Structure formats: C-alpha cells, structure tokens
# Entry
Amino acid sequence: MVHLPSTSTRARPPARQPRPKLLRAPVPAPLYAKGLDIRSGPVPVPIILRIPALGINAAVLGVGVNDYDVMSAPEGPRGDPVWQAAYWYRGSAVPGVRSTALIAGHVNGPQGSAALFGHLDELRAGDIVVVHDTRTGLDVRFAVTRTESFTLAQTTEPAVLRRIYGVGPVAGTTPQTSTDGLAHLTLMTCSGTFQRGLGTHDRRLAVFATRTA
# Structure
C-alpha cells in the first residue's frame, strides 16, 4: 500500500481518478464451438499471435489437456508447421478478458531445430505482444511486465499455477475475473536442460504481460 502525505485543510483535494477505460475495452468473441471437451484434440482458433520484438506472427491452436491432466503441446515430425504454432489453453480466458489467458509454444523441435518460442527469454519489460482477431481485425495489445523461470517441481505448486493460469483453471472452474480488474496474458515455453529420462526440459519459462489497449 502507498500512503499519501497529509495535506492542510486549504490544500486542493486530489482529483478523482476515472475508471480505467480498459475495463470496457472490446475483446474477441468465443474462440471455439460451445461444448468442446477439454480433452478433445487441438482446434484452429481465429487469432494470430504477434510479438514484434521476436519477429513472431503465428497461427494459434486451441488446446486442452492430455491423459496426464497436463496442457497439450502438439508435436510432429521435423518441418511440421505445428512447431511454429502457438497454443492457447482453452481452459484459460479469451485473451483480453479481465482474467488470465495462457499461450504456450515449443522452444525447439526435433534434433534441436528452432521452434516458435526459441527466443522467448529475450523479451524484456515493456515489449509488446499482440493478439489479433482475424474475424474483426481487433488487436488486443499487452505489455510484458516480467519474466520468470520455474523448476518442474515449482510448476506443480498451486500458488505458482494460479500465477500462470489464473485462479479458475487451477480450481477446476471456468476463468475468473482478476482481482486487479486487468487482463493478463502468460506466455510459456520449456527452458533449462532437456532430460531424456523425463522426455522434457527441467524448467519452464513464463513471460507475464498485462493488457494496454
């Protein structure tokens, strides 16, 4: 909490701050057919992810969870377009809604080939992330606020999961309104060292962003 200094009775009272216009900002319509099961396979969704600082302009697939109750991350052979696609988790919020949306991508593909989020760790605070609605032309803009790396063990902790996914998905419900009234976006990818025994990397990189327009 920030405490303001006291003022004399003759001091001009601070002006009332208007409610942020962001609370009434337009958002994309639902991105997939109603009733689609969370365990169903990936489906194309009508948004494009753009990250100018990384030269990213990617198609997005809506994904659910796999048989291990982990967010799906489609794979394919070397050269398959799936390695250059972004994955929006269907259990999270529509990007731009006053909640938390999660979009993931691979850091690399077969034999170490570069994948969509291979340079996600280069994003810095203030960098812009745009979610473009191909139906209406709406651009939902976010600004990066921070980047954090987590061990696999940390990504099972409820407190960390709530930061990444928002409250609703972790509690097994639909996305919930954020406590600060803002729209949040989490970008996720693998990081650290690939562990052959686990079949995955030993860390996860999260880039947190907040909607600006």
Summary: Residues 84 and 116 are 5 Å apart (CA to CA). Confidence is low (pLDDT under 50) at residues 1-15, 17-23.
